[in-house]
Every structure is written in C-alpha cells, then in structure tokens.
Design goal:
Lipocalin, mainly beta, eight-stranded antiparallel barrel, 16 strands
Length: 237
C-alpha cells in the first residue's frame, strides 16, 4: 500500500521539483533508498522513513517526529504522546494534502548525497526513547475527562502503556479494561458499560473525539494530568 500510494503520486510530480539523481523508487544500493522525501512550495519537508518513522520540518522551524502508517491514507503519530499528528490524502492533482500540516505535498527525487542526509535523520529517530516502546499502545500513561458527564456514564479514562485502561463511571465505580491504538485511533475492549463501544481519535491538540452512537453527536474529551483524575485511576493497580 505504501508503494502504491507514493508511486502513483510520483507520476505526477512537477518536473521543477525533481532534482538530478535516481528516479523514483529506482535508487541504487546506498543509505536512504527506502526513504521518501516530500516538500511543499512553502518550504516544508517531510521524510517518510523506511524504518516506519517520519520527520516533518516546517519552514517556521517546527519539527514533528514519530511513526507513520500506510493505508487508504498516510497517518503520522507523535512519537512522544502517540497522538495522531497528521493524515495525508491524495488531492487528485498530483499532490497530497493534510488538514494538520497543509496542502501541496509532492515527492521529490534526490541524489545519493541528499538521500544519505535524509537517511541520517531517519536513523536518528531510532535513538528516541519512544521508538522501541511498541506500537499497539500509547507510550505514556494518558488520561482523558468528559466534561459534564451524567451519572452512570463514563467520565474519566486512563490509558496505560501496558495496554490496560482504567475507567471511572460518574457517581459510581471504577472498571478495568484493555485497549489498542492504531495511528491515534483508541479502542476500548472488555468492559460491561457503554465504554464497550468506546472508540475515538486522539489528536495532537490533546482532544479525544469519541465517535457518536447512531443518531448522536460526537463527544469531545480533553486530556488531563493523572494527578487531576480520580485517585482510583492509576496504572498498575
């Protein structure tokens, strides 16, 4: 899926953006041949690394790093928090676009020296503490609260890095569950409350948008420090 998405994009890359060197996906046996570099006219750069990491370097100096997954869209998660940092989709004009990191992303063809430099940034990711933390769970304990929760409904959830979750029911008990995460999409499993259908997108902004039940509205949860949550919600309990 990764190669299909990027190869289709490469066909339509404007010639003005191509640098002398290897053709798309045709580089020789040197470092960086499995990495893909994309840029915008605004001067932003994105490296999609062969080690499943990524690095975004914005023209304003902002840097994002984390893991990338490929499906019907390209999704990047923040390395430190596990939140979804961006999604890239085909703009149907030879570029890719993202709500979070902007539009006009085109693949560029680099020569060996430039690819080697990009690959250095990819290998640097492997020195980050989060890189080997695993991809199925959030890398750190992360809590969310639901403003204005009614009695008997879930109002606090704590996701632990070992794949367990602690759930507080407003005005009642605390339950344990398990969860998974995929590109910032959090899913709870094995609980006997309405949380059994709990699923939402954890955004880099700190919000958790929980999908609505049929006919309802999506719920916006907010990230909270562990110390601000119920004392019964602690990882390892």
């Amino acid at each position: 899926m990764r190669n299909a998405l990027l190869a289709a994009l490469a066909i339509a890359v404007p010639s003005a953006l191509l640098l002398q060197g290897c053709v798309p996906f045709g580089c020789g046996g040197f470092e960086g041949r499995d990495d893909t570099v994309m840029r915008t006219a605004a001067g932003d750069s994105l490296i999609l690394c062969g080690n499943d990491g990524y690095a975004v370097m914005r023209a304003n100096g902002t840097i994002l790093e984390g893991r990338v997954t490929f499906g019907t869209e390209i999704a990047g998660t923040d390395g430190v928090t596990g939140a979804r940092a961006f999604t890239l989709v085909d703009a149907l004009d030879g570029t890719m676009t993202s709500t979070e990191i902007g539009a006009g992303w085109s693949e560029v063809t680099l020569d060996q020296v430039e690819l080697d430099h990009a690959h250095t940034q990819c290998t640097d990711l492997e020195a980050r503490e989060w890189f080997y933390a695993g991809t199925g769970y959030l890398p750190i304990a992360t809590g969310f609260t639901k403003p204005g929760a009614e009695l008997g409904t879930v109002d606090q959830v704590l996701f632990c890095p070992d794949g367990t979750a602690r759930i507080a029911i407003a005005g009642d008990a605390v339950e344990s569950a398990s969860y998974s995460t995929d590109a910032g999409l959090l899913r709870l499993y094995g609980v006997g409350t309405s949380a059994s259908t709990f699923e939402g997108i954890y955004e880099l902004s700190g919000t958790l948008t929980v999908e609505a039940v049929p006919g309802g509205n999506a719920e916006i949860w907010t990230r909270a420090a562990t110390a601000e949550m119920s004392t019964a919600l602690r990882c390892g309990q």
